[in-house]
Amino acid sequence: MRATTIHAPGDIRFEEVPDPVIEEPTDAIVKVVAGCICGSDLWPYRGANDIDAGSTIGHECVGVIEEVGSAVKDFKPGDFVIVPFCHCDNTCAHCVAGVQAACENLGFTASGQGEYSRVTQADGSLVKTDGMPDASLIPSLLTLSDVMATGWHAAVSAGVKPGGTTVVIGDGAVGLCGVLAAAQLGAERVVAMSRHEPRQAIARAFGATDIVAERGDEGGARIAELTKGVGADSVLECVGTDESMKTAFAIARPGSTVGFVGVPHGVELPVRRMFQKNVGLAGGMAGVRRYLPDLLERVLSGSIDPGKVFDLTLPMAQSAEGYRAMDERRAIKVLLQP
Amino acid sequence: MRATTIHAPGDIRFEEVPDPVIEEPTDAIVKVVAGCICGSDLWPYRGANDIDAGSTIGHECVGVIEEVGSAVKDFKPGDFVIVPFCHCDNTCAHCVAGVQAACENLGFTASGQGEYSRVTQADGSLVKTDGMPDASLIPSLLTLSDVMATGWHAAVSAGVKPGGTTVVIGDGAVGLCGVLAAAQLGAERVVAMSRHEPRQAIARAFGATDIVAERGDEGGARIAELTKGVGADSVLECVGTDESMKTAFAIARPGSTVGFVGVPHGVELPVRRMFQKNVGLAGGMAGVRRYLPDLLERVLSGSIDPGKVFDLTLPMAQSAEGYRAMDERRAIKVLLQP
After folding, report:
1. Please, is B23 exposed, middle or buried when counting C-beta atoms within 10 Å of its C-beta (0-12, 13-18, 19+)?
2. Burial class of residue B16 (count of CB atoms within 10 Å of its CB; 0-12, 13-18, 19+)
């Protein structure tokens, strides 16, 4: 098959690689209908992560089951499925506790930007739709494989409840989905920290009531003003840098929780401040499967439309251009079609 | 008056200092009936914190109101009161949210190991008993000024719920009170990590079902064994060192929360592990006043007896010996009588 591969920082190719095959009886092979590029794919692209040269890249996709292993009971070829980026058996102690990201049989999508992708623990991981969904729904369904579920995880981890003020740090696709999640979970005021007009527009469409364009100390001062000096009732940290984490803890009200989903890079948590102000931290890698049935229902019923985060669609063969567009912030999130 | 002072690491004195006086109309002066030495007093004693030479030390006490400022309405001379180590107005946004440790009018007890102590925000901070309590209750009431409330805060922050396994790291008085709190809050299994037989005995009396004497990797292996590889449902970090924090995150099950109350010293939080395993951190300085009415009721009804943590009682004039005894771990916690 052909798939997107990474060879070095900045070196993305779309080329022939071996077809993924059923390796375990619990596996399934999915023919990708749509994949996309994640903000976290930019870490290796920018040289911040180690690269296994020539390996496939891409962990978000939806598609149609091509083949299933002998132990797969709930899916058959032809089913349209959402593929969580992290695969889980959905039966181990961690899955049962709602922490599918720590499944004892954890696996990951490895060629979501390719023509086919292998899913381990298919029965535990996948969720299917009734028949082939309308093409207009594909972008939103695709977000459920990671970005929307991750934004939702940030909001749940931060303890967003009806009423109150939620601040979302990060105006990438995850942050925007965090805005949508906070609004859906009933936050009265949802503040998106964003300097980019197109992203601000999506944030507003997703339910942001306020936009704060300032960063660092100035951003903190604006949040203090908006919250009458009390601080935010919940903060979603959707970036993963030390600066964004520091901002999160600076604006979170005492007793609140920072929900974090940005893969931490160079983060040193301000433990003294956390102690003195009683501000907690929760979150981490999103166990997508936990939220999938609920989010699917919300998409199918039209109550959320997270597919709006895609502002560029390219043929998969042009995935390198997709990376460039996201790296240069010309695109928020890029959808790739085989 | 005479009070305990610190002049340098290891240099504790009991000497004449100026009497505390009403400085604000919301102040009260309490004649100390009993004070005690906190594990956190050992930080400056051991040279780990800066010292203002000659300053009074000690933030835990109970006593009788000697004098009140003109704005104090709920207390009068003669009332027996528990003095939270951190004072609060109990009316600001943070107090109303249950985070009294972040009160806008935060104050601290400064001469709890002396004959008198000033309490700021007396109406918000203090809780009184009906009449003078029986002498046998004084030790338990004294623990409510900090140590028992702090152990309780650890358990609440860690999300201890009925059922499940709680592990308590630290067998100082706070950790022992954490054991008591976890048992009171219904943990089915309470594991005290302790190598010291007298502390193990108190832990068992407080409700520990298991004792783990091993530390570090070996301690982690024991907890893994006890929890069938899943990890602890909640972990109370009651020390504040990097080692104890690392242990806490090593044994906490994915999706759980480490409740921390040990003042962090040299702690570098394992943010990558927190992310990968979805283990959160919550807690910090305990807003004692939040828990005080409930804990007082539990002491008066005889359902808890946290005064057991005191295994040495000395005249206040011998406070220096009290510090030595705690520093050398000859005593768990020292009660001082004027």
Report:
1. exposed
2. exposed
The DSSP H or E segment spanning A164 is none
Are B254 and A102 in contact (CB < 8 Å)? yes
Q: Please tell me chain A's helix, strand, coil percentages from 3-state DSSP, rounded to the nearest 5.
A: 35, 25, 40
How many angstroms separate the CA of residue B133 from the nearest CA in chain A? 33
Q: How far does the CA of residue B131 sit from the closest CA of chain A (Å)?
A: 34
B274/A263 touch (CB, cutoff 8 Å), yes or no: no
Q: Tally Cβ neighbours within 10 Å of residue B208.
A: 28
- The β-bridge relationship of strands A11-16 and A2-8 is antiparallel
The SS3 of residue A189 is strand
pLDDT in tens, A77-135: 999 999 999 999 999 999 999 999 999 999 999 999 999 999 999 999 999 999 999 99
Helix (H) or strand (E) holding A223: helix A216-226
Between chains, do B278 and A285 touch, taking CB under 8 Å as contact? Answer: yes
Query: Would you call A230 an interface residue with chain B, using a CB distance cutoff of 8 Å?
Result: yes
Nearest CA in chain A to B283: A278
Q: How far is B193 from chain A (nearest CA, A)?
A: 22
Spatial separation of the C-alpha atoms in residues B306 and B141, rounded to whole Å: 8
- Phi, psi of A277, deg, nearest 5: -100, 0
* B260 interface with A at CB cutoff 8 Å: yes
Give long-range contacts, CB 8 A cutoff, 24+ apart: B133-136.
B133/B80, B133/B300
CB contact under 8 A, A274 and B284: yes
Q: What Å distances lie between residue B114 and A275, B118, B338, CA to CA? A: 27, 11, 7
Of B99, B255, B267, the CB nearest to A278: B99
The domains located in chain A, with CATH, are 2-146+287-337 (3.90.180.10), 151-283 (3.40.50.720)
Q: CA-to-CA distance for B132 and B31, rounded, in angstroms?
A: 13
Tens digits of per-residue pLDDT, A166-212?
999 999 999 999 999 999 999 999 999 999 999 999 999 999 999 99
Q: Which residue from B102, B257, B275 is facing A263, i.e. has the nearest CB?
A: B275
A235 to chain B, any CB pair closer than 8 A? The answer is no
Contact with chain B for residue A85, Cβ under 8 A: no
Q: Over 90: is that where the pLDDT of A216 sits?
A: no
User: Which pLDDT band, with edges at 50, 70 and 90, does B216 fall under?
Assistant: confident
Write the CB contacts of A330 (distance below 8 Å, at least 6 apart in sequence).
Answer: A312, A324
- Closest by Cβ to B275, choosing from A99, A285, A287: A285
Strands (E), chain B: 2-8, 11-16, 28-36, 55-56, 60-68, 80-83, 86-87, 107-108, 116-119, 127-128, 165-169, 189-193, 210-212, 232-237, 252-260, 280-283, 312-315, 334-337
Chain B interface mutation, best of A268, A271, A274, A285, highest count of B Cβ atoms under 10 Å: A271
